[in-house]
Every structure is written in C-alpha cells, then in structure tokens.
Amino acid sequence: MKSRTAFRITLALAFVVTAGTLARATSFSPTAVAPTPVAADYEPVDNMHHLMEYIYGPVFGELKASQTNTDDENYWKTVKKTTLVIAEVTSLLAQRGPDGDNAKIWTDASQSLHNAAKATYQAGREKNQEGVTKNLALMQAGCKACHGTFKK
C-alpha cells in the first residue's frame, strides 16, 4: 500500500514538473495577452495646446484650488488624484518635445515636472502637507521653465 501511494505521489509530481516545464517552454500563461505595443506605435491625437487645455489646465487648476481648504475631507484624495494624473501624463508630454536646440529644455522641464508631481503624490499618500507645498512649488517651476520657452 505504501509503495502504491508513493508511486501516485511521484507520478503527480512528475506531471506537475512536466506541465510547468512545457508551460515555460511554450510561454504559456493563463493570463497571456497580446503583445504590448511600443511607444512608437502611438501617435498623438491632437496638438500640445489641447493637451494642456483639456488635461493639464483643469487638473492643475483643481490641485491649486484644493490648497485653499486643506481641512476638507476630500483634500488628500484630490492631491493624490491630480498629482498622479500629472505625473503619468508627463510621460506623454516628454515624448512630444521639439527637435533642435530647445529639445533639452523640453526634456529637462518634463523630467522636473514628473519628479515633482511624483513627490507631491507621495507626500499626499503620507498626508504630509509640508511635502505637498514644497513639491507643488517645484511642479510650478517645471511648468514655468517650459512655458517660458515654448508657450505661444
């Protein structure tokens, strides 16, 4: 009886190991999805003016307006929501910069805005008002650096 049980356990383990090896060999995954397109596969839907007007403007405006009432029960949610959007969308912004002499200004300002928005988001998660205030000023500086050169 013991040898029969040992045989069944060995057979079951062999099956599991073989199935695992085959799954890895064929890249099988129960959650497999189509290959993710690379950034080059995406093209902007509209121009930079509209990206600023419809995304950055309203989101940044909501963040700035929230600073007048930090005691509001939704304050921290607003800080996190708006700074997460700004940090994530800044990757799109960075990809749409100009060529030539001003490309570095664009890239540096985009990176500065991304870093400051990410830090502001983290400060919001920690409910750290001093961090929010400090990094919000850095976000504004990143915006101004770019707008000083590119806003028409």
Question: Which secondary structure elements does this structure contain, and how are they paired or packed?
Answer:
Layout: H1 2-25, H2 48-66, H3 75-95, H4 103-125, H5 129-150
Helix pairs in contact: 2-3, 3-4, 4-5
Record keyword descriptors for this entry.
Four Helix Bundle (Hemerythrin (Met), subunit A); 152 residues; 2 domains; mainly alpha
Write a structural description.
The chain is mostly helical and 152 residues long. The protein folds into 2 domains: 1-33; 39-150, Four Helix Bundle (Hemerythrin (Met), subunit A). It has helices at residues 2-25, 48-66, 75-95, 103-125, 129-150. The longest helix has 24 residues, at 2-25. Mean pLDDT is 81; it is low at 11-17.
Task: Briefly say what this structure is.
This protein has 152 residues and is mainly alpha-helical.
Number of strands: 0
- Mean pLDDT across the residues is 81
Instruction: Examine the coordinates and then state which fold CATH places here, giving the name of the CATH topology of the largest domain.
Output: Four Helix Bundle (Hemerythrin (Met), subunit A)
Q: How much helix, percentage-wise, in residues?
A: over 70%
Tell me the β content.
under 5%
Radius of gyration: 25 Å
Taking the alpha carbons of the first and last residues, their distance comes to 86 Å
The total domain count is 2
- CATH architecture verdict of the largest domain: Up-down Bundle
- The secondary-structure element order is HHHHH
**Tell me about the biggest sheet?**
none
| Annotation field: number of helices | 5
The CATH class of the largest domain: Mainly Alpha
Judging from the principal axes of the Cα atoms, what is the shape? globular
User: What structural category do the secondary elements indicate?
Assistant: mainly alpha
Low-confidence stretches: 11-17
